[in-house]
C-alpha cells in the first residue's frame, strides 16, 4: 500500500509546530537526537540534561506510520529501549501540540527534572 501524501504533509507540519513550540519555550533542545548508536534511533526532540524526550506522532487519523502495525511495533521497541535507558518519553499528537497540552506537560516534566 502506498503512503498517503497528506499524512506526510501532516507529519511535517506537526514536526514544525513541535520544533517552534519546544525551542521557543525551553533551552537545551536537541532535534533529531540519537540516543542509541547500535539501533541508530533518534528522538524528535530531547533534553539530554534531563533525559526528557518529545516524540511528535503524525498521521494518527490517516493511517500514518505510527498507527500501522509494523510502525507501531517499531515505536514500541524504540520507546521501551529509551525507558530502560532512563529516558522519559512524552508522546504528542498535533492536537495536543496545537492546544497547548504538549507544552504544559513538557514544562512540568522539565520543572520536575530540574
Automatic annotation (TrEMBL):
Organism for this UniProt entry: Candidatus Glomeribacter gigasporarum BEG34
Extract the coiled-coil ranges from the record.
Answer: none
Top-rank taxon, per record: Bacteria
Ranges where the DUF559 domain occurs: 34-100
Name recorded for this polypeptide: DUF559 domain-containing protein
Q: Signal sequence: where?
A: none
